[in-house]
Amino acid sequence: MTSEPVSESGPFDPPGVAWQRVSPRLITARLVSAGITLAVPLVVVVVLALLVSPWLWVVAAVPAAILVWVGIVVPRQVRAIGYAERDDDLLIRRGILFRSLVVVPYGRMQYVDVEAGPLDRRLGIAKVQLHTASASTDANIPGLVPDEAERLRDRLTVRGEARLAGL
Amino acid sequence: MNAPTPADGWRRVHPVTPFVRGWAVLAAVLIIGGQQVVEDLPNVGRVAGTVQGVWWQALLGLVLFALVVFGYAAVAWRMTTYAVDDDAVHLRKGVVFRQQRHARLDRLQAVDIRQPLLARVFGLAELTLEVAGGSGSAVAIGFLKESDAQLLRADLLARAAGVKARRSASTPTVVTGPIPMAPGDPGAVPAAEGAADLVETLPPVAPEQPVYDVPPGRLLLSLVRSPAVWILVAVLVAVGVAVVTTRNLGIVASALPAVVGAGGYLFQRFAGEFGFRAAVSPDGIRLRHGLLETRAQTIPPGRVQAVSLAQGPFWRGPDWWRVKVNVAGYQSADGSQSQNILLPVGPRDEALAALWLVLPDLGTDEPRELLEEALAGDARTDRWFTTSPQRARLLDPLTWRRNGFAVTERALLVRSGRVVRSLVVVPHERTQSLGLAQGPWERRRGLVSFSLHSTAGPVRPVAYHLDADDAARLLDEQAVRARSARAHATPERWMEHVAEAVLPEDPR
Fold first, then answer.
1. Is the N-terminal amide bond of B385 cis, ω within 30° of 0?
2. Of A12, A97, A103, the CB nearest to B434
3. Is the pLDDT of residue B457 over 60?
4. Chain A residues with CB inside 8 Å of B106's CB?
């Protein structure tokens, strides 16, 4: 969990904000799940290519290419995820090609979820999901170390209670 | 579950309820059956032949089915009870799976009185409380006698507002209140009488002042001027031409579902928005509408999360606008759009009056000029609005001059659309969260889209393709403005805070 300011400016990097990065283990988690999803069609097509026709190698190239692309993009994507706790709100940003930044005021949080699937637990990461009264608030921070996830959850809850307003 | 029993004790809904509910189920089954028949038109003849032999069995089955439905509804009625205390409404229901539900009154978002056609015949009504707990969190108490439902609504709104009625423990039922208002005549309530009764056992039905209504003629005309009708006409013409040229009547059968669907949509809109009337009262905004099923909505002050005004190209001539609102809890239960309508169709003055209902003070010295600009202006004449820079022209060839935002002390205004003009107004204290987004094309031109997240509903405030610096500044300032506005917002129990919420003067 490094706390270095990312050297970038523009609307996605408000001044005076120190971004927190998520755990690099999220890269592994995402690669493993993408690998599993893509490996199944890849293996099937490769077997068919060996048995039936060499032309099917062309088809096999599609999942292989996607796999390579995922391998290049995912580490950068994960490194681009950042969050910052300001005095009154939480900032979450993500994306390289399609970038987004969400500002969630603590007083607007209705509840906070911490989720971890089997793979996540194995790797020791968890996802914190924030919920406001709006369904379009897409505020989640994946790839947090469990301790940090718990700290964040408790902190958000406390701050949310202190600033809670009606809808 | 053993929840503390409210002091009032538990009450049952009206005994005719199972009959009304049972018929609704039967009707639904018959309609679904009917639809199957319509969609399967070519085979009907053959099926009818088989049915003819065993018609009495079919009839017996239907009668048995009806008995089961009505029997179940009767048991369900026995098991449904409700109670009201100063903090919450309690509802117990369910035959096999018991359910007990508490709706906290300080979280009350809106109260609706719904009267389906059959319930209207019996003079019954269903009261629905929206409490913004997500899908299916509404508490529906039904059916009640219409006058009881109105008294209960007044009672709930008064309690939610913090007007604590001094009730003696011996008045569990709401029979001793003032004369309930007939749904047919708004404003017929004797206001003075109501005010005098305030310290008595029950709070009165709040007096109300009508603001606008939509005559059926205008509604019909507005539908004729909507694209749906033209699509329907085009489909009918196409089918007619196809039938004439190919001499094959099967085309009619295959086009029937589409025609029924479009016609159904138009009828639903007409029936849902028929006789639309809006009024204002200290309780909040009162809306009444419906042809077959009538609905009387009450939205307390400060419960509207966002407003949108929209005008399609065919409404440009008479300058008609359609006003929709986001209210937490609406649109989650049954998905009927008519709940979210504040004005189905009306001239600009009425649309502005509708906006005024939600936001009496726009936080500017020249509201009229600002709104004119918001509705019809563009970048060439703007005084308040910040629009997309010219760099956005390639991404938004038509609307780049219109897309933009303006900020007043009380609200954020987001304008967009040139063919379909649209304006979204969000009070600062109703901001949930904010977001920026940028794709590769926008990035290359230094543009950013700004979105403001509101509760679920038809209104989605997004300002597309703003200058990156403008967007960054807006995000930053809007976060601060939303925070300070929330700090000064009216409390959940609005009457504890204000007594001056009585009728403000007319906007025009």
1. no
2. A103
3. yes
4. 166
Cβ(A49)–Cβ(A81) below 8 Å: no
C-beta separation of B140 from B126 below 8 A: yes
- Phi-psi map region of A96: left, alpha, beta (phi>0 left; psi -120 to 50 alpha): alpha
The shortest CB-CB distance from A103 to any of B433, B448, B486 is to: B433
Residues pairing with B438 in the sheet: A99
Give per-10-residue mean pLDDT for chain A (167 aa).
Answer: 48 87 93 91 89 85 90 93 91 92 89 90 92 84 92 88 71
Tokens of A13: 């990097």
Asked if B435 and A165 come within 8 Å (Cβ–Cβ), the reply is no
Question: What are the tokens at A55?
Answer: 């032309």
By the 8 A CB rule, do A96 and A77 touch? yes
Residue of A nearest to B326 (CA): A134
**Whole-angstrom Cα distance, residue B167 to residue B367?**
44
In this predicted structure, what is the pLDDT of residue B45?
63
Element (H, E) at B387: strand B386-387
The vertex-B325 CA angle with B322 and B330, nearest 5°, equals: 130
Q: Between chains, do B432 and A100 touch, taking CB under 8 Å as contact?
A: no
The CATH class given to the A82-163 domain equals mainly beta
Sign of the four-CA dihedral B124, B129, B133, B134: positive
The answer to whether the Cβ–Cβ distance between B436 and A12 falls below 8 Å is yes
Domain boundaries, chain B: 11-168, 215-273, 302-489
Chain-centre distance of CA B258, in angstroms?
Answer: 26
Is there a contact between A114 and A126 (Cβ–Cβ < 8 Å)?
yes
A133: contact with B, CB 8 A cutoff:
yes
Chain A residue nearest residue B107, CA to CA = A166
For residue B20, is it left (φ>0), alpha (ψ between -120 and 50) or beta?
Answer: alpha
What is the per-residue burial (b if ≥16 Cβ within 10 Å, else e) of B428-459? bbbbbbbbbbbbeebbebbbbbbbbbbbbbbb
Whether B165 and chain A come into contact, CB under 8 Å, resolves to: no
Cβ contact B438–A12 (<8 Å): yes
Q: CB of A40 within 8 Å of any CB in chain B?
A: no
Are A167 and B132 a contacting pair at CB < 8 A?
yes
Sketch the domain layout of chain A as residue ranges. Answer: 25-76, 82-163
CB contact under 8 A, B479 and A136: no
* Domain range B11-168, CATH architecture: Roll (2.30)
Q: How many CB atoms lie within 10 A of CB B56?
A: 8
* B10 has a pLDDT exceeding 70: yes
Q: Are A134 and B433 inside 8 Å of each other by CB? A: yes
The answer to whether residue A162 neighbours chain B at the CB level (below 8 Å) is no
How many Cβ contacts (< 8 angstroms) between chains A and B? 98
